[in-house]
Write a structure and sequence with these properties.
Layout (H helix, E strand, L loop, with lengths): L1 H25 L7 H24 L8 H25 L3 H12 L3 H42 L7 H9 L3 H14 L8 H9 L2 H12 L10 H25 L3 H11 L6 H8 L4 H26 L3
Helix pairs in contact: 1-5, 1-9, 1-13, 2-5, 2-7, 2-8, 2-9, 3-4, 3-5, 3-10, 4-5, 4-10, 4-13, 5-6, 5-7, 5-9, 5-11, 10-13, 12-13
Length: about 300
C-alpha cells in the first residue's frame, strides 16, 4: 500500500497537468489558436533541447546497455506481430488496421519522461533517454512500413515517407546529437548548458498541458471493438510482454523498473498526424489516443504497483 501511495504521489502531478490542460482547452484559455503553436514549439524546440541536454550530459548506465536495448527491440517486434494478428482476427479494413497498430506500439514521450523522472530522478531520465533513442526511430520505421504495406496506393513513396518520418523528426535528431556529444566526450558546451536548462524546463509541463488540450472526451462514445483492442493491448498486454522479456533476459532491476514505466504509456498524439497524412483512419486514431490517455491515469499506477519487484 505504501508503494502504491508513493507511485500515486509521483504520477499524480503528471496527470494533473494533463487534466489542467484539458480544462484550459475547454474554457478556452488561452485562445485555441495558442495551443497548435505551443505544440509546435514543444515538438521542434523545447523537447529536442531537453533530449540534447540530458543525453549529452548523461552518465551512461553502470550496467551494460546492450541487453536492455535487445529487450526493447524484441518487445517491438513481438508486439507489432501480436497486435497485427489480433487486428486481422477482427477482419478490419486496412485503414483501421493502421490505427490499431499505431495505438498498440506508439508511446507518449512527454508522459513517459515526466513519469520516469518523477519516480526515479536522474536514473529515470538516463534510462528514459536510452528507451527514446532506441524506440523512436524503430517505431517510426515500423509504422511507416505498415502504412506502405496496408495502404500502398495512398501512402505515397515509401522512401520519401520514411525520409520525412525519420530524418526530419526533431526528436530523432536530438537523440542523435545528444548521443554524439556524450560518446565523443565533448558533452554540452558550458555556455550552452544554462540556456538549454532554461529552455528544456518548459518542455514537459507545456507538453503535458498540450496533451490534455488535445483530448476530446466526446469521441469515446464512438468506441468499437477496434478501439478497445488497441487500448487493452497497449495498456495491459504490451507491458506484460515486456515483463516476460525482461525476466527471460535477466535485465538489471534498475533498467527494468524505468523501462516498465515506458512500456505502460498510452499511445502518442503524433499518431493522429501520421494517420491523417497517410490516409489512415484518423477519427479512430483520435479516439484511441483519448481513451488510452484517460485510462492510463489508472492503469499506470496500478500496473506499476503490481509488476514492480514481482
Amino acid at each position: 500500500m505504501q508503494e502504491f501511495a508513493s507511485i500515486i504521489a509521483a504520477l499524480g502531478p503528471v496527470f494533473a497537468l494533463v487534466i489542467i490542460g484539458h480544462i484550459l482547452g475547454r474554457i478556452p484559455f488561452p485562445d485555441r489558436s495558442f495551443w497548435p503553436q505551443a505544440e509546435r514549439l514543444t515538438y521542434f524546440v523545447l523537447f529536442p533541447s531537453l533530449l540534447v541536454l540530458k543525453i549529452g550530459n548523461a552518465a551512461l548506465p553502470a550496467t551494460d546497455v546492450i541487453v536492455p536495448i535487445l529487450a526493447l527491440i524484441i518487445l517491438l517486434v513481438v508486439s507489432a506481430f501480436a497486435v497485427v494478428g489480433l487486428a486481422k482476427w477482427l477482419k478490419v479494413s486496412p485503414a483501421t488496421l493502421s490505427s490499431i497498430f499505431q495505438g498498440g506500439i506508439r508511446f507518449n514521450t512527454y508522459v513517459g519522461l515526466a513519469s520516469a523522472t518523477a519516480l526515479y530522478g536522474d536514473v529515470g531520465m538516463v534510462w528514459g533517454a536510452v528507451f527514446l533513442a532506441v524506440m523512436i526511430p524503430l517505431v517510426n520505421v515500423a509504422c511507416i512500413t505498415g502504412f506502405a504495406i496496408w495502404l500502398p496506393n495512398q501512402s505515397g513513396s515509401f522512401g520519401r515517407t520514411l525520409w520525412q518520418g525519420m530524418v526530419k523528426n526533431p526528436l530523432i535528431l536530438a537523440c542523435l546529437a545528444g548521443g554524439i556529444l556524450n560518446l565523443s566526450g565533448l558533452g554540452i558546451p558550458s555556455p550552452a548548458t544554462p540556456i538549454l536548462s532554461l529552455i528544456s524546463a518548459m518542455a514537459l509541463p507545456l507538453g503535458l498541458l498540450a496533451v490534455g488540450v488535445s483530448l476530446d472526451l466526446k469521441l469515446i462514445t464512438q468506441g468499437n471493438a477496434a478501439l478497445w483492442l488497441s487500448t487493452l493491448f497497449k495498456l495491459l498486454v504490451y507491458p506484460l510482454i515486456f515483463v516476460v522479456i525482461a525476466w527471460a533476459l535477466k535485465l538489471p532491476s534498475e533498467a527494468t523498473a524505468v523501462l516498465l514505466v515506458f512500456a505502460l504509456l498510452p499511445t502518442a498524439p503524433s499518431a493522429y498526424i501520421l494517420a491523417r497524412q497517410l490516409n489512415g483512419d484518423a477519427p479512430l486514431m483520435a479516439t484511441i489516443i483519448t481513451l488510452q490517455t484517460l485510462l492510463a491515469m489508472a492503469t499506470m499506477p496500478v500496473m506499476l504497483a503490481l509488476l514492480t519487484n514481482h
